[in-house]
Amino acid sequence: MDPVEFTTFGSVHNAYLLGTIAIWIMLPLIGYKFLNPSQKIAVAWILCIVTVGNEFADDVLRWNLGIWTATDDLPFHMCGFSLFISAYAVVTKKQEAFEMAYYWGIAGAIQAIFTPDPARWPMGNVSVFWNFLSHGIIILNVLWLIFAEGMRCRNSSYLNAILITCGAAFVVTNLNKLLNANYWFLSNPPGGDSPFLIGGFPDHLIWFVVFGIIFLGILYLPMRLANKLAEKPASIS
Question: What is the pLDDT of residue 193?
Answer without folding.
Answer: 64
